[in-house]
Amino acid sequence: MIHPTIDCAGRELVLDRARICGIVNVTPDSFSDGGLHFDPAAAIRHGLALVEQGADLLDVGGESTRPGAAAVDQDEELRRVIPVITALARETTVPISIDTSKPGVMRAAVQAGAGLINDVCALRQDGALEAAAELGVPVCLMHMQGEPRNMQADPQYDEVVADIKRFLADRLFSCELAGIPRKHLLIDPGFGFGKTVDHNVELLRELQQFATLAVPLFVGLSRKSFLGTLSARREPAERTPASLAAALIAVQRGAAILRVHDVAATSDVLKVWNAVGPGKPQKASASPPRVRWGEDD
Ligand code: 7PM
Q1: Total domain count, the chain
Q2: Among the four 145, 149, 184, 222, which has the fewest Cβ within 10 Å?
Q3: 224 classed as catalytic
Q4: CATH of the domain at 47
Q5: Ligand 1 atom index nearest CA of 142
Q6: Any residues with CB less than 8 A from the CB of 250 and at least 6 apart, and which?
Q7: pLDDT digit string, tens, across residues 159-172
Q8: Residue 112, domain extent
Q9: Higher pLDDT, 88 or 295
């Protein structure tokens, strides 16, 4: 088995095992950390700390995609992210990803040292496909139904997994047509982006179905609202255990990269998973165990 290696503008991301992408928010309204990292110096320190904790990649974002969030104009987004990318590119060796949908931000970020584009709009904004093709860096294409402003209003699918697979297959095709080689493409089902709790649960349960698209699978589950619902945890910062459970399930179902807030804890989970592995499938036993979990008879 040869493992895909993603060349992020000269920094390698080797997908021989699941990898951790640490989240570096540079927004005043970031939902899960109260905007603790809006201050560029604090965001830089936070990014460096995440690398120490085991992040294989850092995702820097300056526009909140919180449901209902106001859009940020390009100048403001650049003021937030460029100093942080510049410093992190100088002070770490891990690849740096830019979380943006704007072609102008993609260009400036790659110029400043970013080696991967993480676009929650999957390069659907005007000029984004062309900018990404020109920049020659890998791209993560995420599925979102609607726009952050309205996406959680009443999300609907015929078949959530099939619908999202079709969308991602179509975006992969458009990217290849625009000159982005398949080895530079990743896909993400976009947990929480225009999905009900049931949609998110179904996506996580059936995540292995995305393997047929034959590109690495990137997932963001960390502290998301549906995990808050499942665990009855109102505060995002209380959702770490639920996020770790979801991360492990995702890795067991084929996720290649986990985008997370809690890097140290996720790194421990992956160490256990890497040591144990999937195990051999078992035949149904002729003599079933007398005790079955979950039954009190
Ligand atoms: C509110 C809702 C605030 C959601 C922040 C978020 C993803 C992403 C984000 C993801 C990829 C968060 C998200 N989520 N990029 N950016 N995949 N590729 O939890 O799931 O940080 S923003």
Answers
A1: 1
A2: 149
A3: yes
A4: 3.20.20.20
A5: 18
A6: 204, 207, 219, 221, 258
A7: 999 999 999 999 99
A8: 18-274
A9: 88
Of the listed 149, 224, 239, 253, which one is catalytic?
224
3-state SS class at 279: coil
Q: Is the CB of 262 under 6 A from ligand 1?
A: no
Nearest CA residue ID for atom 22, ligand 1 = 65
Has 259 been annotated as catalytic?
A: yes
pTM of the model: 0.93
Choose the weakest-confidence range: 149-158, 218-227, 230-239: 149-158
Q: Using the predicted structure, report yes or no on whether residue 31 has a pLDDT greater than 50.
A: no
Here the tokens at position 151 are: 């996406």
From the centroid of its chain, how far is CA 212?
19
CA distances from 127 to 5, 99, 166, 171, 280 (A): 27, 16, 22, 14, 48
The pick from 33, 117, 120, 235 for probing ligand 1's pocket by mutation, whose C-beta has the most ligand atoms within 8 angstroms, reads 120
**Closest C-alpha residue for ligand 1 atom 20:** 220
Q: Is 192 in the pocket of ligand 1 (CB under 6 A)?
A: yes
> Residue 292: pLDDT above 70?
no
pLDDT tens readout for residues 84-142: 999 999 999 999 999 999 999 999 999 999 999 999 999 999 999 999 999 999 999 99
Residue 140, ligand 1, Cβ within 6 A? yes
Specify if 290 maps to a domain.
Answer: no
